[in-house]
C-alpha cells in the first residue's frame, strides 16, 4: 500500500474506502446477477468481466482527474453545465428507453450508453460552486440570482423530471444543501421551493388531461399509493415484497442466519438485485453485520468529503467537495430506503457498489475531484512546512 501512495495524492482514507467499495462491488455483483443472466441470456463471465472492466476504467478516470487543478473546474463550470443541458435535451429526443423512461444516451462508436442525468448532477454541482462564490455580493439581487443560480437549477431539474423523478428531487436536495452552506438568502430559497412545488402540481394537472405530456406521472402516483396502502395486489408489489423478504431472511435471529455469499435465493426474483435493490440482496447474503459495515463505510467516506471541503483553501473547493459528498451519500441512502420500503420504489444505484455500468465512471470522476482538492491541500501544507523549516534553520 505504501508503494501505491507513492504514485497518488490526496486523502488516503478516500482512496482506501473507494478501493474497498470497488472490491466489494466486484464480488457481490457477480453473486447478484443470476436474474440478469436468465432474462438477457448473457453469461456470468461476460457480465463479470464487463463490470470489472468498467470499474477499473472508472478508477483510471479517478486517478487521472485527481491530478487536474481545481481552478480548471472553476473555469470550465459554465461549459460543463451547457453541455449537460444539451445532453439532457438529446436524451429526451433520442434517448434509449429503460423501464418506460428515456434516461440513456448512446455513446457513438462504442457499445455503451450512459445516463445523462449522472453527468448533469456533477456539472450542476461544479457550476453552482462557482456561481455561489462569484455572485456572493449580489445575493440580494433577485434578477442576478434568478439568472445565474435559480433558473439553472430549475432547468436541470425540469429536463431530468420527465424520465426520473427521484434524480430530479436529489438534484434539488443537493442544490438546497449547497445554497444553505453558502448563506444564500432564505427568502429566495423559499421562493424557489414554492415555485418548484407549484410548477410540479400544475404539470401533474396538465398530465391528468393530456397524459402524453408526462407519461410517467401515473407510474409515480401508483408507486406513492402502493407505498401507503394496505389494499394492494401482491402481484403489483412483487419487487418490494421480495426485497423486504430478502432483508428479513438476512436478519440474524435465533432461528435464522444470513444465507452467506452466493447463497441468496431472492436475488433470483428481484429484477434489479444488482442495482436498484442492491442493499436488499446484500442483507440477504451478508446479514445485518455486512449492512452495518457498508453503512459505516459510506458514513466514513462522507465524513472525509466534508473534512476535505471544510479544509479547502477557497469556498469554490469547499462547496464542490461537500456537494459531491451529499450527492454520493443521498444516492446510497435512497437505495437503502427503497430496499426497506421507507420510500416509494425508484431507481438509484449504490455508488461504486451497484452494477451501474458507466454511472460508475461519473462517481469515480466525482471522487477524483475531491481527491484533487485534498491533494492540493497536502501540497500547500508540505510547502508551508518546508518554508517554516527553512526559516527556522536560518534563524538558528
Shape: globular
- Provide the low-confidence segments as ranges: none
Nearest-angstrom radius of gyration? Answer: 22 Å
Give the end-to-end Cα distance, rounded to a whole number of Å.
38 Å
Summarize model confidence as the mean pLDDT.
84
What order do the strands of the largest sheet run in, or round the barrel if closed? Answer: 1-2-3
Task: Give the biggest sheet.
Answer: 3 strands, antiparallel
Structure description:
This protein has 396 residues and is mainly alpha-helical. It has one domain. 69% of the residues lie in helices and 3% in strands. It has 13 helices and three strands; from the N terminus they run ααααβββααααααααα. The chain has helices at 12-32, 34-40, 44-65, 70-94, 116-134, 142-160, 165-181, 186-209, 217-228, 238-250, 278-310, 315-339, 359-395, and strands at 96-98, 101-106, 113-115. It has a three-stranded antiparallel β-sheet with strand order 1-2-3. Helix 5 runs antiparallel to helix 12 (315-339), helix 11 (278-310) runs antiparallel to helix 12 and helix 12 (315-339) packs antiparallel against helix 13. The longest helix has 37 residues, at 359-395. The radius of gyration is 22 Å and the shape is globular. The chain starts with 11 loop residues before the first helix and ends with a helix. The mean pLDDT is 84.
Amino acid at each position: 500500500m505504501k508503494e501505491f501512495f507513492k504514485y497518488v495524492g490526496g486523502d488516503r482514507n478516500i482512496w482506501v474506502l473507494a478501493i474497498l467499495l470497488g472490491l466489494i462491488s466486484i464480488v457481490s455483483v457477480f453473486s447478484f446477477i443470476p436474474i440478469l443472466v436468465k432474462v438477457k441470456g448473457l453469461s456470468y463471465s461476460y457480465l463479470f468481466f464487463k463490470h470489472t472492466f468498467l470499474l477499473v476504467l472508472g478508477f483510471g478516470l479517478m486517478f487521472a482527474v485527481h491530478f487536474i487543478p481545481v481552478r480548471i473546474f472553476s473555469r470550465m463550470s459554465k461549459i460543463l453545465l451547457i453541455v449537460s443541458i444539451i445532453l439532457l435535451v438529446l436524451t429526451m429526443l433520442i434517448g434509449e428507453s429503460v423501464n418506460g423512461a428515456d434516461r440513456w444516451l448512446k455513446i457513438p462508436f462504442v457499445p455503451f450508453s450512459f445516463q445523462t442525468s449522472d453527468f448533469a448532477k456533477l456539472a450542476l454541482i461544479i457550476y453552482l460552486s462557482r456561481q455561489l462564490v462569484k455572485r456572493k455580493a449580489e445575493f440580494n439581487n433577485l434578477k442576478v440570482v434568478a439568472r445565474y443560480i435559480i433558473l439553472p437549477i430549475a432547468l436541470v431539474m425540469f429536463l431530468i423530471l420527465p424520465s426520473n423523478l427521484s434524480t430530479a428531487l436529489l438534484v434539488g436536495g443537493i442544490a438546497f444543501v449547497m445554497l444553505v452552506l453558502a448563506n444564500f438568502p432564505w427568502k429566495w430559497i423559499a421562493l424557489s421551493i414554492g415555485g418548484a412545488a407549484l410548477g410540479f402540481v400544475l404539470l401533474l394537472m396538465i398530465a391528468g388531461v393530456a397524459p402524453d405530456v408526462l407519461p410517467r406521472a401515473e407510474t409515480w402516483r401508483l408507486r406513492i399509493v402502493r407505498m401507503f396502502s394496505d389494499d394492494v395486489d401482491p402481484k403489483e408489489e412483487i419487487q418490494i415484497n421480495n426485497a423486504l423478504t430478502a432483508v428479513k431472511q438476512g436478519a440474524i435471529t435465533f432461528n435464522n442466519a444470513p444465507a452467506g455469499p452466493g447463497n441468496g435465493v431472492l436475488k433470483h426474483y428481484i429484477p434489479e438485485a444488482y442495482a436498484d435493490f442492491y442493499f436488499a440482496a446484500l442483507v440477504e447474503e451478508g446479514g445485518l453485520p455486512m449492512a452495518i459495515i457498508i453503512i459505516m463505510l459510506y458514513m466514513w467516506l462522507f465524513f472525509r468529503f466534508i473534512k476535505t471541503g471544510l479544509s479547502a483553501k477557497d469556498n469554490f473547493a469547499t462547496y464542490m467537495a461537500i456537494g459531491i459528498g451529499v450527492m454520493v451519500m443521498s444516492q446510497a441512502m435512497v437505495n437503502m430506503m427503497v430496499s426497506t420500503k421507507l420510500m416509494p420504489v425508484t431507481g438509484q444505484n449504490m455508488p461504486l457498489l451497484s452494477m451501474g455500468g458507466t454511472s460508475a465512471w461519473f462517481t469515480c470522476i466525482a471522487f477524483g475531484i475531491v481527491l484533487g482538492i485534498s491533494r492540493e491541500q497536502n501540497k500547500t501544507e508540505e510547502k508551508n512546512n518546508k518554508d517554516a523549516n527553512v526559516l527556522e534553520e536560518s534563524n538558528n
